[in-house]
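Methods — Computational structure assignment.
A single polypeptide chain was analysed. Its primary sequence is given first, followed by the predicted tertiary structure written as structure tokens.
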Amino acid sequence: MDFPFGFGQKSSLLLIFFFHGIVFSFLSLRKGIVFKTRSATWLGLLLFLAAMYITPYMLGYAGWYGSITTKEILFFVPFMQVLLIGPVVYFYTQSLLNSAFKLSKKDWVHFIPVLLYSIYSLLVFVVDKLILEEYYFYADDRDKDLATWYQIAGLLSMNFYLVLSLRYYSNYKKLLFDTVSYADAILFRWIKNFMLAFLCILILRVLFFILNPDWGQFGSQFWHFIAFSLVFYYISINGYVNAVKSTTLLHAAGNDMNIFKEAAMPRPETNSGLLEADLKQWKERLEALMREKRVFENPRLAVSDVAQALGTNNKMISVVVNTGFQMNFNDFINHHRIEAVKELLHRGEHTTRTLLGIAFDCGFNSKATFNRAFKKSSSMSPKDYISKLP
């Protein structure tokens, strides 16, 4: 059986991106198996789906819809799983931010639309090929994967799961800044960049639909698929690089970074609302700990460390910091670190030591984090502050 491939300009360009997607999908899946990182596995599946997404157009431009044999392959194989891309993006986000994440029974509900479309595709094949032995569903001679209703449903699905992913990331950041004092080091900015890239794909999809009056014509959608391929090229390279890096950061953070499990634990009601007198007492105890023990100098200080030092639980410390000081834990500790840096600067330490060395001694773990925290606390850069010293 001859399956010719027409190497035209359009088919060849899409072939490059298809091959790239398959390769990086394999590499990501392999990394997921070798390093036992679920995020890499989900990324591999996402890249595979992206490669499959452009397959009908790559093969269509190569002339496969013009051959009876190859046309039936395109008709009856559901290459474009647009209802699966959204859930995979969502679970990739969760697995990247939470190394303990795994699918639960309730998560399988997200795959119901995909299952229903698969049953529909199987029904089409059985009726047209095995029962009637003639086109009934395909009497219009149009690939069902390219049907407008299916593509719109996929677009809505991807938008829905992008919103879920953004909400998950927002909750993660809040929990992170309330749990550890080194949040910037494990904030995973790749997730933010990834979701911006995915949003770009959805926006381009809508724009091409609005600006292209011949959207329903097969040949008029080429630039959309090129744009889609370019964005996924960026996602595949950066996602592959970050696959192990992010998980390593999570494990390096230790038990304190299991913030999702901790967030789900029941809280004692007595900690949720402190009397004003009790709050004042706890604030004084917390300030005394900072002043006398200087625990903020620990670059990996977590809320559990402070709770243990004061003989209480994590929730109590969070309530005191959030309510009493109107800060999250990360900002509260960085505030004390900045005050310690300022004290050393007023002593003239910067004349004999590097500014970064002073920052590290006060508990900071990176120059970027120190500069951001200093500017947030003082409304000026460290250098500007030094220039104004008497």
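Note: The chain has 16 helices and no strands.
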